[in-house]
Amino acid sequence: MLTHANLDRSKHLIKSLNLKMNQEYKKWLTYWKKNLSDSLNTNIDIEQSEYFEIENFKIEDQSINDVQKVNNLIDIAEQKINDKKGIKNKESDKWIHIEHTSVIIAPFKLS
Q: Cα 72 vs. chain centroid, distance in angstroms?
């Protein structure tokens, strides 16, 4: 039975859901805005960086399925670390192995 109390409760629930959704969108928009602002203050030479593009990436997936490309980024980061320490031979006992590296995910590409 629909009463004024139930109707008011439903309106309140809808308003609350909309507010939560708007806050989530606002949080993402603020995040991207700050990233764009930060990018103006940094000097990132994309031509010197290793990167790859993913077609139709969905941020909800929270993972990258192209393992070979990800492993390649880890190998490159590992090589850079060892080059800085003067270690050239991958078979050396001194070779530093890494299991992870930092990754920057950009929602679009500027060209």
A: 17
Q: Can you read off the two tokens belonging to residue 90?
A: 């991958």
**Collapsing DSSP states into helix, strand and coil, what is residue 100?**
coil
Summarised one tens digit per residue, pLDDT across range 53-102 is 777 777 677 677 778 888 888 899 899 999 999 999 989 999 999 988 87
82, 98 in Cβ contact below 8 A?
no
pTM of this prediction exceeds 0.70: no
Question: What tokens does 48 get?
Answer: 């010197």
Task: Pick the closest to residue 85 from 72, 75, 96, 93 (CA basis).
Answer: 96
CA pair distance 21, 58, nearest whole angstrom: 18
